[in-house]
């Protein structure tokens, strides 16, 4: 097992990794930006090292500075968390070249899956269903027009290097496609330095279903069931559940099997997630594989009892998976709400500033992942997520009821948050009935916000 881990991240995921290392008797070195000098993980880590100023380009994305810190502090492993350098193949390679274990798959696997078009081709060859679309990279807008005419509108123009919902545009007819192509390409070029594009048929308001995978260096690959992450705003997840509601046993099993097939096709090692879209007719299609731990991994942990970060670290240390597929049983239903410092009444604009007071919910099967405390500062430099509230119930309805109580108890003052919105969402009839798809929030958010206190009270059954 490792002796000393460099945590190359911040916020709640840095705390999550810190706690896990502590349990495993691994010393921690927190790599922090000057902005995060007083952060919670900086107060707990065995050692701390400043890797640069607030601007992430110069700190959390500064591979050379992070490697230098790991070497200076004699760390034998680096955990990248999610975001930042977690899916950066060059960074993983740099770790490999410096003899430091990267807690994740090999740089080659990251590169292979990071290029969404080549991942798509590989999956197609391996018999995993992919969304109908282009073969290979589009040579330009003329080819986009030709392919779209063949598969039929609407289509989604996507960047092969895309991530975080960026570099994607919908074209509903031939009149829109050139503009969509140029906008998506310009966005991808600016964000990822790569303007290679492909296109897929747009599946109208699908569900987003993803499967958690664990693979070790001994060739074992298992799944930990699926999550439904359909509650998205501008392609960003806001709420996740495990298992996915309202799926037939057969469909659920088929999706899980396809995910394992996808992971096997690349000989996947580490924790990873295979993402699918599911259409209204029950057809599902691979969209991408994330080669890191996901924000929403706790819902899977809640229903399986498996500590995904612990397994990820054990795998990186060359140990065999502690579980076989037959050991994995799903109990109950878990929901995660992402609490963001943002203003729901002002287009969800970030709301940074000082948290004057925070009280987190508690109780049986209520879990909070956060690094904020009363008096802490929410920096405008980073993601606005300040906490994840995760609950488990015997079934979906009891999980929803538990989440209502948890959100009622959650108190944050000093910055605006989406907590009230999430509370209202937990009372929305369609949500409660499990009628979710990726178009749900765009369609219903305004009505949910307008829902007044009286109807809130009336619905508290
Ligand atoms: P990113 O890496 O930027 O998150 P993804 O490929 O994972 O991009 O897509 C993000 C979201 O966009 C998905 O969760 C899904 O909601 C939607 N999406 C992606 N591809 C399609 C598609 N072909 N049809 C409909 N929705 C899609």
Could you characterize the architecture of this molecule?
The protein has 461 residues and is of the alpha+beta class. It is built from 16 helices and 22 strands. An eight-stranded antiparallel beta sheet has the order 13-12-9-10-11-14-21-19, with helices on both faces. It has a five-stranded parallel beta sheet with strand order 3-2-1-4-5. Helix 7 (141-151) crosses helix 8 (174-192). It is globular and about 60 Å long. Adenosine-5'-diphosphate binds at residues 131, 156, 162-165, 200, 202-203, 206, 208, 232, 235, 275, 277, 287-288, 438.
Strands, total number: 22
What value does the Rg take, in angstroms? 22 Å
Small-molecule binders? adenosine-5'-diphosphate
| Number of helical elements | 16
Strand content: 25-35%
Task: Return the structural class.
Answer: alpha+beta
Overall geometry: globular
Report the helical percentage: 25-40%
The overall pLDDT, averaged over residues, is 96
Assembly status = single chain
Largest beta sheet, briefly? 8 strands, antiparallel
